[in-house]
Design brief:
The protein is about 30% helix and about 20% strand. It has about 270 residues and is of the alpha+beta class. About 40% of the residues are buried.
Amino acid sequence: MTEKNSMVNDPVTKEMLVQALEKTGVRKGQILEVHSSLSSFHYVIGGARTIVDALMEVEGEGGTILMPTQVSDNSEPGDWCNPPVSPDAYQTIRDSIPAYDPLLSDVDGMGAVVENFRHREGVVISSHPAVSYAAWGRYAKLLCNRQSLHFPLSEESPTARLYELKGYVLLIGCDLDKATCMHLAEYRTDCRPIKINGAKVTENGRDVWKKYLDLDINSEDFLKIKKTMQRKNMIREIMLGGCKIMFFPAAAAIDEATAYFERTSVFELYR
């Protein structure tokens, strides 16, 4: 909803959102990784439900929608920084945090649209306890069928399947640093150091703290890559109700990021 005492002059309806998505290039039958910020609009009539309804209407029965459903709290507390945690509390958190549940675990920070989407009928959720995905539509099961515990956004992930199936990325009120699929380029170029992460999972009926290997990923460089993509006219943009909507092919963007990391990574000096 809008701030108190402000006046809404440009409310967004589902029909307006459908038309805007189609103008950017969204079509029936595509595979879309979607990132969204409801608050970036001045006002959407019906809120998150309207956005999800519009996405499903545009994609139709033959389309597929993919959204990250990351459980940021189910992670190594030593890595937390907002706020940081005292080392004395690390083990207490590991022991006490609830095990991952695809429907019950909080997806804090992912937004209202993700929360609405993941509870829709027919949505499939991948298995990773910290960086899962939710998918709906024709290729939902294929995208979420397998996600490795170790290096969860690499080749055994919904991200890699999106790349192989020539899917697209739709950013609604978000910038490129929120595009999860772009992290695939980091894994493919070894540009980040390896770290040990952890999450609570259920194994054989017991809740256990499970360590796993991952990269120390960083999305800040994606904004630099965005400038190159814009120069090459890879991104289609439109404004609606105060919100910028961007649309681009996932594989081309990941390839651009891969080339960037291969040129700039300090690790390339030692190959």
